[in-house]
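User: C-alpha cells for this one?
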Amino acid sequence: MQANNITEVIKILDIIVEECKITNSPLGYFAVLYRKVTINVKDGIINNRFEDNNRMEKLDVLFANRYFKAYFDYKKNKTISKCWRISFKAIEKNHLVLQHLLTGINAHINLDLSIATVETVDNLPIQSIKKDFDQINQLLSDMVDEVKQNMGAISPIFKLLMPLAKQWDDKLIQFSIETARDGAWLFATDLSQNLDKREELFIQRDLIIENLGFKLLNPKKTLQWLLNVILFFESGSVKSKIETLEKKI
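Assistant:
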C-alpha cells in the first residue's frame, strides 16, 4: 500500500492506526505520532510555510512510503531493513510506549528520511533541500516532546520517576533525536555524492541504526529496573493507550 499524495498518506495512517486498535498492537503508537506530524506538514503546505511546498509534499510522500513498505512487508513476513525490524519486533516484549515511539523515529529519520531526501532532489544539489529537511525533522522531534509531557496519562508515575532516570533519558533522546537530525543529513549527503555505492552505504547505515535501536530498547541494567516500574504502572490496554495518544498529542 503506497500513497500518491499527502492526503493518501494520512488515509493509510488511519488504516494502520485502526488496525492496531483492533489487534491491540503497539505498532499503533508510532502510527499515531506519525499521523499527527503528517497533518502538521499538510497544514504547513496549505499555508505555504515551507521553502518549496510542492517539493515538501513529494518528500513527505516518498518518506511515508518507506514506512508503509516496511510496515506491510513486516506483516507479510517479508525481508525489511534491520532497523525497522528491531523496532517492529519490540512488540514481542514489554517496553515503554516512549521506547516504541523512539525506535520508530530512529529507523524512520536515521535511514528513511535520508533516502527519501535524495530521491526528492533527484539531480539537484542536496543542499537545496536542507531547510525543508530540517523543518520536517523538527516537526517529528517536537511531537516526541509532547508525548513525553503527556505520558502521565498512560503511566501515573512516569513524571515522578523519569527524573531519576535522567542519564538514560538524555542518552535516549540524544540517540533518537539529536543524533538522528545530524546523522540523517550527513547520510543523505553521502548518498547523493556516491549513488554508485548506494547499496553498500545502505547496508552499513542500516547496521548502525539497528544498533541504536537496540540501545533504545536495552538501557543499562542499573536503570532497567526503574523502567520496569514505570512500565508496570502503564495503565490500560494497547488500544486504550493508542486512544490516549490520539487525544494527547
